[in-house]
Amino acid sequence: MPDGAILALAGFMQSTLEYPQVEVCFHVYGDIARGYYIEDDGISFGYRQAEYGEWSLDFEQGELRSEAEIGGAYKPSRRFSVSSRAGKKDFALD
């Protein structure tokens, strides 16, 4: 993976029905990285009415920051984490 990339990976699951409960880990490559994360409920067509969330992601000085972008009021209830050269830790989307 090239430096500057942020890759969102969901944990292991037996079925896509488990997706809302599975932790998503943002794997950061390099010392400075930027990207976007977009998520909806995964089951409805609500995204057509802007029922989704979009966040910009910025990683600098060992810290990942997020900022809500265009999108609806959707806020995932899942757990998030970030993994970088500094290790792995819990993370919360803003």
Write up this protein.
The structure is a single chain. The protein has 94 residues and is mainly β. It has one domain (6-91): Immunoglobulin-like. Helices cover 0% and strands 46% of the residues. The chain is built from no helices and seven strands. The protein has strands at residues 6-10, 24-28, 33-40, 52-60, 63-68, 80-84, 87-91. Strands 1-2-6-7 form a four-stranded mixed beta sheet, with no helix packed on it. A three-stranded antiparallel beta sheet has the order 3-4-5, with no helix packed on it. β4 (52-60) and β5 form a beta hairpin. It is globular, with a radius of gyration of 14 Å.
Question: How would you sum up the major sheet?
Answer: 4 strands, mixed
The helix/strand series, from N terminus to C terminus, equals EEEEEEE
- CATH fold type: Immunoglobulin-like
The total beta strand count reads 7
Envelope shape: globular
Residue share in helices?
A: under 10%
